[in-house]
Design goal:
This protein is an all-alpha fold. It has one domain. 58% of the residues lie in helices and 0% in strands. The longest helix is centred in the C-terminal third of the chain and has 24 residues. It is elongated, with a radius of gyration of 17 Å. It starts with 28 loop residues before the first helix and ends in a 12-residue tail after the last helix. The relative contact order is 0.17.
Length: 136
């Protein structure tokens, strides 16, 4: 074990959030749900955020299930990604008539993709995002 390295407390004792079974013998449904939410957000880029609305509803329901674990940060990350993305997309759409909206829409899309990618990759590696974790 590396000294000072931050390690998430993984629910099933595995190193990747239970995706390969770990010592718990199965996948953690909270981890699977977080993957589904990231996938819905990614699909939202092609459905004018339609599937992202379903994703944020699921994130709100999943938030309490992950409370106190390394997954809590992912639920918070997903919820904030949706609401800030919706805000910036709305501002961009409203201001397209004065041309400043197009760069805002482009920036928001890049930002949204970055948030999805960063969160999803950290989830896939069993790592927390934006929250307190135990140091071992």
């Amino acid at each position: 074990m590396t000294q000072g390295r931050i390690r998430p407390s993984v629910p099933d004792g595995g190193s990747n959030g239970g995706l390969n079974g770990g010592s718990g013998g199965g996948r953690d449904s909270r981890v699977v749900m977080a993957h589904v939410i990231y996938a819905l957000y990614a699909l939202g880029l092609f459905t004018v955020l339609g599937t992202a609305v379903v994703g944020v509803v699921l994130a709100y329901f999943n938030r309490d299930a992950g409370y106190g674990t390394w997954l809590a940060g992912h639920a918070r990350w997903q919820i904030r990604t949706f609401w800030f993305g919706l805000l910036f997309y709305t501002i961009g759409a409203i201001t397209t008539w004065i041309l400043i909206g197009w760069p805002i829409l482009l920036f928001t899309t890049v930002w949204f993709v970055w948030r999805i990618a960063k969160g999803w990759l950290r989830l896939a590696h069993g790592e927390p995002i934006g929250g307190a974790v135990e140091v071992s």
